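worker-3 :: picked DUF6126 family protein
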Amino acid sequence: MSTIEDKFPRALWVRLLIYIVLGHVFGGFLYLLFEVGAK
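worker-3 :: tokens ->
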């Protein structure tokens, strides 16, 4: 189990989580932009 933690440090998980959250926020922003632009 320790080898898995060595391969994936905590900083990598935090960075991955931040990228996922920012990706969803950016995707939601683009969706709202197109929804407003379509009307």
